[in-house]
Amino acid sequence: MQLQIERAVLSSILFDPEQLDFIAESLVAEDFSYPPHQNIFSAMLELRHTERPIDEEIILGLSTKARPIAQEEMLNILSTSPISDLKSYVQEILESSTKRKLHSFAMKITQSTAESETSSKEIMDYLQSELYKIGNVQQMREFRDSKAIIKTTLEYVTEMKKRGNNLLIGVDTGFAGLNKMTTGFNKGDLVIVAARPAMGKTTLVLNMAQRALDTGRGVAFFSLEMPAEQLMLRMLAAKTSISLQNLRVGNLQEEEWGNLTYAADVMSKSPLFIDDNSLLTIHQLRTKLRKIKTKHPEIGLAVIDYLQLMSSANNKDRHQEVSEISRGLKMIARELEIPIIALSQLNRSLESRSDRRPMLSDLRESGSIEQDADIILFVYRDAVYKQKDEKEKEEAAKKENKDYKSTYIPRNEEEAEIIIGKQRNGPTGTVKLIFHKHCTRFVDLNNSNPTLEIVYEQTSQNTQTQFMPPQNEEKNPIDMPQI
C-alpha cells in the first residue's frame, strides 16, 4: 500500500512536473520509505534546481553508484496512474515518515542507555534534541487568499473596538508608559530584557511577573542564576515594601510580620512555577514548558533568566549556540501562544562610551537575538554609573594620598530608563520609571499626560505603593514564613 502511494506521487510528478513545487514544500527524499523512490525524488529535485526537464530518460541518466536508479522501478512508476489531488497522499507519506523516525528514535534510546561511558545528562540532551527535530517537521500550509485574511483581520479590529479602544491588548507589563508604547506583551512575542549587571533587569521582570499574577495569569519562571527562594524574597519585598535586606536577616517589626504573612499566603495560592535548575538546554526548556502549559493552561507568560546561561544540546560555536537558543525561544512562544521574556547580558564595551545608554549592537552575540526578538528592552540607571565613577575617583585619590570629597548622594529612589531598542509592531523610545532600591521594585514615574493617567487607572489598580491586607477581611492565620 505504501509503495503504491509513493509510486502514485512520483508518477503524478512525471505526468505534471509543476506538481513538484507543491510537493517539495512538504517532502524531502528521506520521507519516502523505499530507497529507490528516495533516489528518484532526489533526482527530480536536482533537475528542478538546474531547470532541466523532469523526464524518465533524463532521470535514469542521473543514476550513479551512490544513487542507483533502476529502470524496472521507473517502469513500475510509469505504469501507476497519476492522481489529481495529491494532498492526502503527501500527508500519508509524511505520517509514515514520522512513524519510522519515532521507531528509529526508540531504538536510539535503547542503544544510548546501553552505552555505559555516556552520562545520563548527555543521553537526555541528545534524545530531547532528536525528538524536538521530529516534532518540528514542517507541515503543509497552503497560501491564504486575501478574502480570508481580510475576514480575520476585520474580526480582530472589531474585537479590539468592543474592548473600548483599550490601549492594552496583551499581557499587562505593570507600567503605564510601557503599556502605552507596546500595548502589552502579545501572544507569540519574544521579549528580550537586556542590561549590564546591577541595573535591575531581574527585578524588572519579577515586577512584570507579579503583575501577570495579579491579573490572573500564570507564570513559568526559569532561573538559571538564582535559587527560587531568593526570587521569592525579592517578590515579597516588592509586594510588602519591606526592605529586602531586612527580609534576608529576618529583622522585621510586628506589623511587617503581619504584612509578610498575608503576602506569603496570597503568593502561595498564585499560579507561579519556578524552575531553578542551573543547567538547562533549549530542548529541556521546551519540554518542561509544554508539560507545565498542558497541566496549567492558565500560564500566560514565561521568563528565562538569563539567555546566555542556557546551552544547546550540541557542541557548537557560541554564536551558533545562541542563534539556536533565540530561534528556539521564538518558536516556543509561537507554538504555545504566550509571550516569552528572556533576559540578556550586554557587552562590557558600552562602559567605555561617554553615553552609556545601551543600543542594539551592545547585545552579547547580538545578531540572532536582534533578529528573532519582537521587542528588545534595555534597563538603564544613570545613578549606578555615577556611584561607580565616584568610587573610582575616591580610590584613585587615596592611592595618590589626596583628599577627595564625593558629591554623590545615595538615594533610596532613583530614576530608571526602559529603552525600547526594537519593537517589531510599534514605536521605539524611552519610558522613565522610579526604582525603589530597598525593596527591589520599579514603579511608574508621575506623568501629567492624561492618556497615561487613564491607562494607569485602568491597568494598575491592583498595584499599591505598599502592600497591606484588606482592612475589612480577616487575616488567614498561617505559620510564620521561614526566611
UniProtKB/TrEMBL annotation:
Q: Which organism is it from?
A: Helicobacter ganmani
- Which UniProt keywords are listed? ATP-binding, DNA replication, DNA-binding, Helicase, Hydrolase, Isomerase, Nucleotide-binding, Primosome
Q: What is this protein called?
A: Replicative DNA helicase
Q: Which GO terms describe its cellular component?
A: cytosol; primosome complex
EC numbers: 5.6.2.3
List, alphabetically, the NCBIfam families matched: DnaB, PRK08506.1
Q: What SUPFAM superfamilies does its record include?
A: N-terminal domain of DnaB helicase (SSF48024), P-loop containing nucleoside triphosphate hydrolases (SSF52540)
Kindly state a single biological-process term from the GO annotations of this entry.
DNA replication, synthesis of primer
